[in-house]
Amino acid sequence: MAKERRRAVLELLQRPGNERCADCGAPDPDWASYTLGVFICLSCSGIHRNIPQVSKVKSIRLDAWDEAQVESSMCAGSEATSAQWLSLSSPGRLLREQWIRAKYERQEFIYPEKQEPYSAGYREGFLWKRGRDNGQFLSRKFVLTEREGALKYFNRNDAKEPKAVMKIEHLNATFQPAKIGHPHGLQVTYLKDNSTRNIFIYHEDGKEIVDWFNALRAARFHYLQVAFPGASDADLVPKLSRNYLKEGYMEKTGPKQTEGFRKRWFTMDDRRLMYFKDPLDAFARGEVFIGSKESGYTVLRGLPPSTQGHHWPHGITIVTPDRKFLFACETESDQREWVAAFQKAVDRPMLPQEYAVEAHFKHKP
Question: What range(s) does the PH domain occupy (predicted)?
Answer without folding.
Answer: 120-221, 243-347
